Amino acid sequence: MASIAKSKPTSGVKEFTFLWEGKSKDGKNIRGEMRAASANVVQTTLRRQGVINAKVTKQRFKSGGKITEKDITLFTRQLATMMKSGVPLLQSFDIVGRGHANPAVGKLLLDIKSDVETGSSLSAAFRKYPLYFDQLFCNLVAAGEQAGILDSLLDRLATYKEKILAIKSKIKSALFYPIAVIVVAFIITAVIMIFVIPAFKEVFKSFGADLPAPTLIVISISDFFVAYWYAIFGAIGGGLYAFFYTWKRSEKMQFVMDRLLLRLPVFGDLIRKAVIARWTRTLATMFAAGVPLVESLESVGGAAGNYVYKVATREIQTEVSTGTNLTTAMQNTNLFPNMVTQMVAIGEESGALDSMLSKVADFFEAEVDDAVEALSSLMEPMIMVILGTLIGGMVVAMYLPIFKMGSVV
User: What is the pLDDT of residue 318?
Assistant: First the structure.
């Protein structure tokens, strides 16, 4: 492939990737790609460079799925591995981008590669896509570029993202099972109420006898479901949509809900341990990369994943910036266990804060693992009892009149 010089991008003009194929002055077939605003610009540039009979086609990317955090984590690990192996940065982007299973990720990486080719720093190229690369990611990459240890920082960043992703996965797996069972139980109950119980009701009418109180209660609930099923499902769907819409856009709502989550009787302790693990892991990664403590705290709050800790981190940052040591600032929030603040105090005194924070993160990640296993073992019998009581209660209520008739006969 011939190497074609890139023309400088025009400010404010959207560029696309074009593939071209033509012949050089000595008659050899050559091909390549170029970023430009249109095919005419590519044709003009190629003619100036001596390429004749050039065929230019716009590169089209297949519509891929949503770019997930797992995709970004995998890309970070692949880029770190290639750079540690001595593969040049641009070539690494090209290999990862063209070989990725998700076309949307491939297009994103090739766009970033084009920005770097035109003279932009890697961290500046990442900052153009804040939806996928947060402030922490960009700050660490910038620190690696400035210190000349980008491969090491990318490796540290990949390890950090893998651990955070594992924590999130454990929390989701712990919450998914009970939520899924609740949804399925509601659907089954609605089907029984709307379709099954009315059939029993018609049969009971022919008995001409008084029905037991449990049966009358279940039939009344069924009549309400049959009459207002659209309102019930509409209210539930609309309520959930309004709740999550408000939760995402209202800081006050986020604070209230995150504080409520931390106070849940069973899940609250698990969520608190996961948040502390992410908080300490993030601060350890930033501090070990050479980012100043005050600047590190800027990214730590958002990475914790809980608005209560995000607000507390702002307070810690303010106190640290005025000369208070980190240990005292953390104690003033009353959100961190004594073990955490003691380990941080030892780290500050010994000059090994990043190491101590990493040990705290390891400890709480292990605690999350144990808590998820215990919670899974506890939830199964509880859910079986709840479902048995709910479904079994309806079945017994419907069969009570039949049992009563059998005893009379």
Answer: 92
**Cα–Cα distance for residue pair 316/328, rounded to 1 Å:** 9
Would you kindly state where each structural domain of the chain is located, as residue ranges?
A: 16-58, 69-162, 173-409
**Assigned fold of 173-409:** Receptor-associated Protein (1.20.81)
Positive or negative: CA dihedral 61, 67, 71, 73: positive
pLDDT tens column, 207-251 = 666 788 888 888 888 888 888 888 888 898 898 888 888 877 777
User: Helix or strand or coil: residue 211?
Assistant: coil
pLDDT at res. 15: 64
First to last CA, the chain: 94
Query: Which segments of the chain have a pLDDT < 70?
Result: 1-17, 33, 35, 58-65, 99, 207-209, 404-409
Domains 69-162 and 173-409 share a fold: yes
Helix (H, G, I), strand (E, B) or coil at 247: helix
- Is the alpha carbon torsion for 289, 292, 295, 301 positive or negative? positive
Q: What is the CATH number of domain 69-162?
A: 1.20.81.30
Q: Rounded to an integer, what distance in angstroms lies between the CA atom of residue 74 and that of residue 87?
A: 17
